[in-house]
Specification:
By secondary structure, this protein is mostly helical. 82% of the residues lie in helices and 0% in strands. It is elongated, with a radius of gyration of 18 Å.
């Protein structure tokens, strides 16, 4: 069960990193469309900040899961 759970966490980490990279990729294409909406025009800096923050958090969380999957535990270290 532990190995199964570990694989699921690894795949979830990879999915999080891919989602974060996808957000980074889409930001330049989506921002001009959002700027066309008058209601959001004045707060575009905040919206852009939120999108980049979301991407960084997704990549950071996924990277942390991937790192913890491959990090050696105390029992795995050879003496």
């Amino acid at each position: 069960m532990n190995a199964q759970k570990s694989i699921v966490h690894l795949l979830w980490g990879v999915a999080l990193v891919q989602a974060g990279l996808g957000v980074f990729y889409r930001i330049p294409y989506v921002m001009p469309q959002i700027e066309k909406i008058e209601y959001f025009y004045e707060v575009m800096g905040f919206i852009r900040f939120c999108f980049y923050l979301m991407a960084v958090l997704l990549i950071g969380g996924g990277s942390r899961k991937i790192y913890q999957h491959f990090k050696p535990t105390n029992g795995d270290a050879k003496e």
